[in-house]
Write a structure and sequence with these properties.
The structure is a single chain. By secondary structure, this protein is α+β, with helices and mostly antiparallel strands. The strands form 4 sheets. Strands 1, 2, 3, 4, 5, 12, 13, 14, 15 and 16 form a 10-stranded antiparallel beta sheet that branches. The protein has a 3-stranded mixed beta sheet with strand order 8-7-17, with no helix packed on it. Strand 9 and strand 10 form a beta hairpin. The longest helix has 14 residues. It is globular and about 55 Å long.
């Protein structure tokens, strides 16, 4: 299916129209997606590519629930996991534009009790900028061994059914030693969960309300939220990598990853009592995420200023190694930014920005090529990293 995409103005909806010509990359993308699904590598997927503001490719294929044979619908809702982060970061940047928040604000201005210390006992200054750039010295539990501090303290990565409040999780995070002096290194982390709490204080509202009022409602992203509609109503069943084919996630479910494992609770997406994780907590459709990506690509759509878009999507960490993104990448104010396509072995152009989620999702925006590509699957982590997403990228660029 091909269609034209009109990036919505604030408060407007978006309209789809039939495109005049099919995209010349359609057959290559179809072949890769068909092979991944027929080969039992990916259970189900929705892929949308927009070029210069028009939808050049749109495909929904495979199973939303393999066991009941429910097919993926084009309006399928997926667990976005870390693709939540750019949305929450834009919410924070909108507050910066409005003067309600500053990048150099100490986190303690908003969260007076959030005072993690270095291993030597010193309490360094952590700023909002450090949170946005993952340079605060925090980490994730799956990035440390099972006997690491986050595991010993019971820190939630935001994917499990911890039963914690956001405040209690912040207390546990602050009780763990920082890995480094803020600003001196890069580490993927729960920083955006902490940022979510900052947003709550700066807006005097709950994070879901702030995100809805500032970002998702103005962009008509009606499917994107922290709590899904009742189970079975359009939310794709998640699967985990296994041989000979992905296995349906149990409740709970553990998947080896990083230095230990990712602990999932698929039911968390339906639990209104689970704390809103700014790092991994949202669900939504590929089309609604495209609305978000296109809004930022085209200058912010009034959510954030064009100058703020430029800052968000430019490298903000100098020559620090951005391990989770790989060689050739830097980090902006909420997204990975491609600095050197050769070092990254990527067909994308310099200045492209992107991220992904551990339930099996990824996206990228390549401003120089006029491209926004959203790839949502229900297969962790094969839909996020490895052969499938890399093959799709090569196909998009004809590489």
């Amino acid at each position: 299916m091909t269609a034209a995409f009109a990036s919505p103005a604030i408060g407007d909806g978006s309209t789809l129209q039939t495109a005049a010509r099919p995209w010349d990359r359609t057959k290559a993308l179809d072949a890769i997606i068909n092979d991944a699904v027929s080969g039992d590598h990916i259970v189900g997927a929705t892929v949308i590519a927009a070029k210069n503001g028009e939808i050049a490719y749109q495909r929904a294929v495979g199973f939303a629930d393999r066991e009941s044979q429910r097919r993926i619908d084009e309006g399928e809702v997926y667990r976005l996991a870390s693709m939540t982060k750019p949305i929450v970061c834009v919410t924070a940047l909108a507050l910066v534009d409005r003067g309600q928040l500053r990048l150099e604000d100490p986190v303690t201005r908003w969260l007076p009790d959030f005072r993690p210390k270095l291993i030597d006992g010193r309490e360094p200054l952590i700023t909002v900028r450090h949170l946005l750039t993952h340079t605060a010295g925090l980490t994730y539990g799956f990035l440390e061994p099972r006997d690491g501090p986050y595991h010993r303290l019971g820190v939630s990565d935001g994917l499990d059914a911890s039963g914690l409040t956001l405040e209690e999780n912040l207390h546990r995070i602050a009780s763990a030693p920082l890995l480094f002096e803020p600003g001196t290194s890069w580490r993927y982390s729960v920083a955006i969960d902490v940022l979510g709490a900052v947003i709550e204080r700066a807006t005097d509202s709950k994070l879901p309300d702030a995100v809805r009022n500032i970002v998702t409602r103005p962009l008509n992203m009606t499917s994107v939220s922290f709590v899904s509609s009742p189970e079975g109503n359009g939310l794709a069943t998640p699967y985990g990598d296994a041989s000979p084919r992905p296995e349906r996630m149990a409740e709970p479910f553990s998947l080896k990853f990083g230095q230990s494992a990712i602990d999932y609770s698929p039911a968390r997406a339906f639990d209104p009592k689970a704390f809103p994780s700014g790092g991994v907590g949202m669900v939504g459709t590929a089309m609604d995420y495209l609305r978000f990506a296109e809004a930022i690509r085209t200058g912010g759509s009034g959510i954030i200023r064009p100058e703020t878009v430029a800052a968000m999507t430019s490298n903000a960490v100098g020559d620090l190694t951005v391990g989770a993104a790989g060689p050739g990448f830097g980090w902006g104010l909420g997204v990975a930014v491609l600095k050197d396509p050769v070092a990254a072995k990527s067909p994308m152009m310099a200045g492209a920005w992107m991220w992904a989620g551990v339930y099996g999702t990824n996206f990228w925006v390549d401003p120089a090529a006029g491209l926004s590509v959203i790839v949502l699957t229900n297969t962790a982590v094969a839909g996020m990293t490895g052969d499938f997403p890399m093959s799709l990228r090569r196909a998009v660029y004809g590489a």
